[in-house]
Each structure stands twice: as C-alpha cells, then as structure tokens.
Amino acid sequence: ADADGTSAPQLRHEITTVGVVGTGTMASGIVEVFAKAGYDVTFVGRGEDKIAGVVAAITKSLDKAVARGKLDEDGRSDVLVRLTGSTEREALAGADIIVEAIAEDLDVKLALFADLDRIAKPGAILATTTSSLSINACAAATSRPQDVIGMHFFNPAAIMKLVEVVTADDTSAEVDETVRALCLATGKHPVSCGDRAGFIVNALLFPYLNDAIRLHEAGGASLDEIDEALKGTKLPMGPFQLLDVVGNDVSLAIQQSLVETFGHAGWQPAPTLERLVAEGKLGRKTGEGFHTY
Ligand code: 3HC
Fold first, then answer.
1. From the UniProt record, which GO molecular function terms apply (predicted)?
2. Which of 119, 197, 225, 273, by CA, is between 20 and 30 Å from 1?
C-alpha cells in the first residue's frame, strides 16, 4: 500500500508539463506516449534537424494509429499541438517531470543531470530511461537525489506497456508513487525494481539474445531459422529481429554492463555483436543489422 494506505498509486505531485531530453528512438516514443496521454511535452535536441526528425517520427506513428482505427483525426492533431521542440535545455525550466533518453554513456548522463539540477524547477522529478547505467550515479550528480528515479521504457515505447520504475537509495516515496501513478495515467504498466544492472527484464533478456548470436556463430542454425523457431514459441519476435529493433549498439552496452556487474564469463558479448557495431550495422535505424531493411 502507498503512503495513505491505498493500493492504487496517486499523483503526489501535480504534473501538467513533461520535459524529454533526446531525439533518438526512445526519446521520440516517450514524447509520443506523454502527448497522447494529454500532457504538454517540451523536448530538447541538439539541432533543428533532430527536432524535425522527432515530429516526423511521431507523425508517422500517429498516421499508423489512425489507419488502424486507434486514433481519429482530431486526436491526431491534438497530439501534434502538444509538442514543443527546442535546442535549449533551458526550455525545460517549467516542466513538472523531465525524462532523459540521451546516449547510454555515464559521463554524458552525469553532465546532463548536473545541468538539469541547475535548470529544473524545485520539486521537478528527474527521470532517466537508462537501460543499464546506475540511477544512484545520476542522482549523485544533482543536489536533489530524492527527486531522481529510473523510468525504463521498452522499444517501441509507444506500444510496449511495461515501464520498470527504478528507485535509487535516496528516491523519495512520493516521487516513486507519483511516477507509478503517471505510468498508469499514460496507459503503461509500472513494475518496481531496484537499481542493479539490467533491472529485471534486460538482466534476463539479454543473456538469451547474446546466446542466440553465439548459437548462430557456432553454426547451429541460420538467422531466419532461429527467429522463426523462437517466434514459434509465441515470443512476438525472434532474437535477431528484436536485436535489430533495440539497436546493436544499445544491446552491446547492456551486455557489457551485465558482465561488469555480474562477472559471468559466459555473458561476454558475442563477437558478431561487437563486429556489427564496429561496422555501424546497428539494426533497423541504420537499415542493416543482423537483417537488412
Ligand atoms: N500507434 C498505436 N498503436 C500501434 C501502432 C501505432 N503507431 N503501431 C502498432 N500499434 C498496435 C497495433 O494496433 C497492435 O495493437 P492491437 O493488438 O491492440 O491491435 C499492436 O500495436 C501490435 O502491432 P502489430 O500487430 O502491427 O505488430 P506486431 O503484432 O508484430 O507487434 C510489436 C509489434 C509490438 C513490436 C511486437 O513485435 C513485439 O512485442 N516485439 C517485441 C518488442 C520487445 O520485446 N521490446 C522490448 C525490447 S528490450 C528493450 O526495449 C529494453 C531496452 O533497454 C533496450
């Protein structure tokens, strides 16, 4: 039960404006999630072209939703008018919660959190969608660790319901409860977990994906045979299809952090994963990964 003994989490902080930092696949999906749920969203990117890219990606997704009968034309335009893109982080000063989805690199994240500490209004929630870095480390880069939390969305964020809500040592109970309530308000399914590499899903999913690569490397079966066989077990995608959706660079970073944390020698990234990343074959986003698009 939460603070007042109720079992459903409540919004302990008023949330009207959401800030998002980043313009990649995850950031774009997260902007879409909040705008669809009726929040005004300000998102910050490193250039006008990147900002236009987010609007284009969301427009494409909304068009798809309309075509599927999940959204009407009015709903589509309501979502688009809620979006404000900016190249200045200062634009986030009015946000009630800021979710960052920038590069999966600790130094880059720490510099961002120090910046958000300077910019965000008092009491704003500072969330990260990191999939493998420490929430405690992000919190320690600010003077307000009680307001820092992990909100780990899954790819594609606009569709996947799960969000792992990751509390760090100092995250306040109100912030944790508010973020879980916010997930429910956006149609997501929050699951709480502690701050350890891979949280729950990636700690279990990525060793399987890595083993699929090793099976292929060992001559066990072709990419398509493995994908087809696993889809036959009712998984929605085979391992190589999913690796290409997630991105091989992201997958490599997650696998490396699992090895560092758990010290399991068998979890070393498969050589093919390292080679594809070195060759820039990152998956769907570059047009080629394990498969070609
Ligand atoms: N807007 C709204 N809804 C949409 C949409 C859009 N743009 N596009 C698709 N949908 C809806 C569809 O209407 C459908 O919903 P319905 O069943 O209620 O009608 C649903 O999404 C599925 O769409 P499709 O039927 O077109 O496609 P699939 O059935 O092939 O599903 C998928 C696509 C959901 C991506 C599915 O293949 C899947 O679940 N794949 C696995 C994804 C996954 O596991 N992601 C996690 C990766 S790990 C991760 O992200 C962690 C990170 O740290 C790396």
1. 3-hydroxybutyryl-CoA dehydrogenase activity; NAD+ binding
2. 197
